[in-house]
Amino acid sequence: MAALATLTELEARLDFPLVDEVSEDDRTSIAESALEDLSEDARHYGSPAWTDPQNTPAIVKSLILRAAKRYLVNTDGFEQSRSGDETVGWGNVTKDEQAGSAHFAPAEIAQIEKAGRGGRLPSFGSFGTYAWNSQTFPVKRDRKGYVEWSEIL
């Protein structure tokens, strides 16, 4: 299926261009793949009915773009990086099993699930009502049609 966010929307959020003219580094295919993967994840956690950006809640589209930006800024999933000594550290695998891949954080997944359920509308059940100080009148069950008031009272 198609991505729920576009490359131009993602580029507007990035601090760098997807195509670097100096180094000729092209990250367009990585960005497209991230948007498609995150869109599939959003459909999985939220609603399969989200087929195009027009019928997708704005918060879901925003979460897809945030996660895609987070991935593109740090595609390798580094936890630590230094330039002076060339020190690069990786996070512990048990900390974040999905480091280095486009994924949603647990809080983002909860927001997508909420949007899939209908967002801000509270869920409530039904309940019976009755008029205050009302009475029920016994009616003979064998009679059909009009019943005289004298028979009810």
Task: List its salient traits.
mainly alpha; two-stranded antiparallel sheet; single chain; 5 helices; two-stranded antiparallel ribbon; 153 residues; 37% helix
Describe the structure.
- By secondary structure, the protein is mainly alpha-helical.
- The protein has a domain at 7-76 and 102-117.
- It contains five helices and four strands; from the N terminus they run H-E-E-H-H-E-E-H-H.
- Helix 2 crosses helix 3 (58-73).
- It is elongated.
- The protein starts with 6 loop residues before the first helix and ends with a helix.
Tally of alpha and pi helices: 5
Shape: elongated
For the secondary structure, the number of strands is: 4
Low-confidence stretches: none
Give the N-to-C terminal Cα separation: 68 Å
Largest sheet: 2 strands, antiparallel
Q: What oligomeric state do these chains adopt? A: single chain
Query: Which class do the helix and strand fractions yield?
Result: mainly alpha
N-to-C series of helices and strands: HEEHHEEHH
Integer-rounded radius of gyration:
29 Å
Helix content: 25-40%
Summarize model confidence as the mean pLDDT: 78
- Strand percentage lies at 5-15%
Strand order of the largest sheet: 1-2
